[in-house]
Each structure stands twice: as C-alpha cells, then as structure tokens.
Amino acid sequence: RMETDCNPMELPNNTGFEEDSDYRDFEGTEVKDMRLEAEAVVNDVLFAVSNMFVSKTLPCAEDVAYINVETRERNRYCLELTEAGLRVVAYDFDQTDDRLQTPYHETVYSLLDSLSPAYREVFGNALLQRLEALKKESQS
User: Fold this and answer.
1) Which residues form the GSKIP domain (predicted)?
2) pLDDT (tens digit, 9 = 90+) per residue, 30-66?
3) Least C-beta-crowded within 10 Å: which of 2, 12, 108, 124?
4) Which pTM value belongs to this model?
5) Cβ contact 112:46 at 8 Å
C-alpha cells in the first residue's frame, strides 16, 4: 500500500539510492528510465482520454517524467510520474505549480478515475467488451 503524504521533493538529493543495490529492480539494473515508463502509461490509457502525450518541454530524467493529458471533459492536466506514482502538478500542459499539493496515485487508472467520469465510463465499457469477448471465446 502506497502512502500519499510523502513529497519526494522534500528528500535530500544525496540519499545514495543510486549506489545501493537494494534499490535496483529484479534484473539487477538501475531503476527504469521514467520516459519509457511514461510512454507505456500513455499507450495504456490513450483510448479513454481526448489527448495524452509525454511532455517534450519539461525535462525527463531517470527518476521523473511529465505527461500531458486532456480528459474527455476537455480538462487539461500535467502529471508527474516518479517512483512514488503519478500526481497532478498543473492544470495545463507543460506546466508545474509548486504550490499544488496533490496526492500520489499508484496507477494511472486510479488517477484518471478520480479526475474524469468520462474516462471511468469509457474504460469500464472497454473492460466489459473484453470480458464479453473472452466469454464468447471460452464458449466456442
């Protein structure tokens, strides 16, 4: 279970996590590049929003990436993706607002579910269609 009240920006820069092998993933490689992770997030839910893409303006790094999303309600958000999860950092594309203290969400599904009723409906319908298709497959 992930806590939502930790702000990683308050952590000191010299935590030493990079050198500590306990903080590597299972293949023994360094923490994955967040830009690749962000691309995967976008590809996963693009069908259920109006527009979504990895920011080309804000800097991506090993530990952070920014994703712009426009919901079907036409609301725009800039999301920050870190090891802590995803959170809204601005109410427009390619922006960050340090005064915004929004909670982290473990998944993009959870975050979009909280922001967009239309996302919830589209995603739920897609899930139902997939289940129906699986049901038909198992009956044939």
Assistant:
1) 34-134
2) 446 899 999 999 999 999 999 999 999 999 999 999 9
3) 12
4) 0.73
5) no
